[in-house]
């Protein structure tokens, strides 16, 4: 209908336009019918492992405003009450979900220019070889843990200790070794 194309700004302001996303191969597709919020770069070890990337960018969406329009991703319970999903065909990470929140990896959006990152989170786990030039607030944990940002701009962070990063990886590596051994004996 032509009216759908005549007032895109008004639709934008109401946050009711439909935004679409997909995995790499297109087997999993979704749409958003409400605004994205809490757009962050996350530096936690779990997001890094799920995406095999140095950090991830995700946004939150009300669960009522999200639906799959094609296919369904495979779900993996990465810890108690936390489901992380990916496409079973191409492997694209899609989401992080706990009982309260639904986070979608931003680079699954069809239009990647829609994302306006607001903060870095979990900066205590940020890799020492990453360099950023932005002035976004940096949080030790998530956005809603009641703490103020430790600095504005990742370049103003104290260097993350390499020992901390190694210790963190060693913990998760050991946990996975244990898991793999248990599974093999089933
Ligand atoms: Zn796919
Ligand atoms: Zn994370």
TrEMBL record:
Protein name: CENP-V/GFA domain-containing protein
Superkingdom of the organism of origin: Bacteria
Organism lineage: Bacteria, Pseudomonadati, Pseudomonadota, Alphaproteobacteria, Hyphomicrobiales
Alphabetized UniProt keyword annotations: Lyase, Metal-binding, Zinc
InterPro entries: CENP-V/GFA, Mss4-like_sf
Family from the record: Belongs to the Gfa family.
Ranges where the CENP-V/GFA domain occurs: 19-130
């Amino acid at each position: 209908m032509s009216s759908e194309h005549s007032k895109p700004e008004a639709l934008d302001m109401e946050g009711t336009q439909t935004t679409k996303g997909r995995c790499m191969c297109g087997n999993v597709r979704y749409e958003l019918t409400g605004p994205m919020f809490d757009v962050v770069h996350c530096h936690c070890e779990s997001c890094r492992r799920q995406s095999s990337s140095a950090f991830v960018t995700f946004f939150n969406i009300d669960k009522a405003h999200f639906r799959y329009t094609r296919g369904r991703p495979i779900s993996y319970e990465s810890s108690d009450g936390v489901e992380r999903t990916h496409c079973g065909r191409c492997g694209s990470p899609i989401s992080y979900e706990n009982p309260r929140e639904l986070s979608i990896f931003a680079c699954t959006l069809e239009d990647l220019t829609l994302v306006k990152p607001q903060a870095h989170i979990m900066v205590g786990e940020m890799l020492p070889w990453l360099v950023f030039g932005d002035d976004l607030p940096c949080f030790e944990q998530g956005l809603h843990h009641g703490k103020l940002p430790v600095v504005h701009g990742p370049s103003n962070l104290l260097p993350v200790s390499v020992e901390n990063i190694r210790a963190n990886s060693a913990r998760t590596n050991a946990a996975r070794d244990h898991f793999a051994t248990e599974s093999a004996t089933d």
